[in-house]
């Protein structure tokens, strides 16, 4: 029984409610983006579903759209009139049987720019949601910040090798101005092995130090392990330069944009590191990982969970823009072909591309789920349970 309880806890099943909360908000706004622009363009929407599988609840609005809440909370979709499936693959048979007046309600027969607008609206809605969440948190709750003042230098660290001293004030990293320790930590964390140029004020003089953050394995309060960059400097322990700041709405909105851009930028950096072999692909996570993080974050409070929702919203918006059939980016790739060639890609080719895209998405899903299970040590727990 203890083993089963451990598996229950380790798999994140005890985190179901926070997971559903986070994913439902993110998916709802993504699909709402598609839905809203489609309606504005005169496209008839048959189904708006949050989740997959059999519907738990459903109802119809005055336009005839069926709204569903389905029992598998791992995504969602909007199905347009004339589409063969939820991936917006057009149904050749259905379209051929329509007269011209009826076809005007389909996405397939809309002008190219309208089709592209409907497709890109989902990821854009995710970015807008994230920016609004970040801006609201910065404006209503603010943040605790520390001046980038070095309170100590760890022995045998990158900072010691670079010549940092207690009392140094970091003013810029690679010519990018910083005014708090959080910015320093964030830039260092994702730049393990990359030389960084620090502008430092010391005894009234401005000097430049070059340091290469060390790659270290760090464990958070929940036992999760991460490979990150570490400089080896400590915040001043006497509270000097520590303050709580709440930002005006305009500044908070801009900070929300910057935070969202930072997540996108760092996603590409990490992907690049994985491709060139400097980061392990085992760091990629899937639904189980999201569920686990959602539950862990929920223990820190509602504000932390809402912040995670914003981060996940940016990530889902970005992933959906990848040029993979089945994703929004795949449809945009088809539209780009049509814009260049002057005619749509044949439905047969699109159908095969969708199948390939589905295979790629499923393989990725299996891979990240395997990573999640391996990270939670599920395989060895199961083996021990059965006596292997």
Describe this structure in words.
With 388 residues, this protein is α+β, with helices and mostly antiparallel strands. It has 2 domains: 213 residues, no CATH class; 103 residues, Pdz3 Domain. Strands 6-5-7-8 form a 4-stranded antiparallel beta sheet. Helix 2 packs across helix 10, helix 5 crosses helix 8 and helix 8 packs across helix 10. The protein is elongated, with a radius of gyration of 24 Å.
Write the layout of secondary structure elements.
Elements: H1 2-10, H2 16-40, E1 45-60, E2 66-80, H3 92-96, H4 100-103, H5 112-141, E3 143-146, E4 150-153, H6 158-162, E5 169-173, E6 176-177, H7 181-189, E7 196-202, E8 205-211, E9 214-219, E10 225-230, E11 233-235, E12 242-245, H8 249-275, H9 287-298, H10 302-319, H11 328-341, H12 347-375, H13 378-385
Antiparallel strand pairs: 1-2, 3-12, 4-11, 5-6, 5-7, 7-8, 9-10
Helix pairs in contact: 2-5, 2-9, 2-10, 5-8, 5-10, 5-11, 8-10
Number of discrete helical segments: 13
Q: How many runs of DSSP E, i.e. beta strands?
A: 12
Q: What number is the mean pLDDT? A: 82
The structural domain count equals 2
Q: What Rg, in angstroms, do the CA atoms define?
A: 24 Å
Which stretches are low in confidence, meaning pLDDT under 50 for 5 or more residues running?
1-13, 378-388
Tell me the span between the first and last alpha carbons: 17 Å
Report on the biggest sheet: 4 strands, antiparallel
């Amino acid at each position: 029984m203890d083993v089963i309880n451990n598996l229950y806890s380790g798999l994140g099943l005890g985190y179901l409610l926070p997971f559903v909360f986070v994913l439902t908000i993110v998916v709802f706004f993504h699909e709402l983006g598609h839905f809203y622009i489609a309606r504005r363009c005169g496209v008839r929407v048959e189904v708006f579903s949050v989740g997959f599988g059999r519907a738990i609840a459903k109802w119809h609005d005055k336009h005839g759209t069926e709204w569903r809440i389905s029992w598998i909370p791992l995504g969602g979709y909007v199905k347009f009139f004339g589409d063969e499936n939820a991936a917006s693959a057009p149904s050749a048979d259905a379209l051929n049987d329509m007269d011209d007046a009826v076809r005007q309600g389909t996405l397939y027969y809309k002008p190219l720019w309208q089709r592209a607008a409907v497709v890109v609206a989902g990821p854009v809605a995710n970015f807008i949601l994230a920016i609004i969440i970040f801006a609201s948190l910065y404006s209503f709750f603010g943040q605790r910040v520390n001046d980038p003042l070095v309170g100590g230098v760890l022995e045998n660290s990158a900072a010691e090798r670079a010549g940092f001293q207690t009392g140094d004030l970091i003013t810029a990293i690679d010519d990018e101005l910083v005014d708090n320790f959080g910015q320093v930590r964030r830039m260092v964390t994702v730049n393990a092995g990359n030389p960084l140029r620090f502008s430092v004020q010391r005894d009234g003089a401005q000097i430049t130090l070059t340091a290469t953050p060390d790659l270290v394995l760090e464990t958070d309060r929940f036992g999760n392990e991460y490979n990150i960059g570490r400089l080896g400097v400590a915040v001043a322990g006497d509270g000097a330069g520590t303050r709580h700041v709440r930002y005006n709405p305009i500044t908070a909105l801009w900070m929300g944009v910057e935070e969202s851009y930072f997540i996108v930028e760092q996603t590409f950096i990490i992907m690049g590191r994985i491709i060139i072999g400097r980061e392990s692909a085992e760091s990629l996570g899937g639904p189980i990982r999201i569920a686990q993080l959602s539950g862990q974050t929920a223990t820190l409070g509602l504000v932390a969970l809402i912040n995670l929702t914003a981060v996940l919203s940016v990530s889902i918006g970005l992933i959906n823009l990848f040029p993979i059939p089945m994703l929004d980016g795949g449809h945009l790739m088809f539209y780009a072909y049509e814009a260049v060639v002057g005619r749509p890609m044949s439905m047969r080719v699109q159908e095969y591309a969708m199948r390939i895209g589905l295979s790629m998405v499923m393989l990725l899903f299996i891979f990240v789920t395997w990573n999640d299970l391996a990270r939670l040590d599920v395989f060895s727990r199961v083996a021990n349970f059965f006596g292997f």
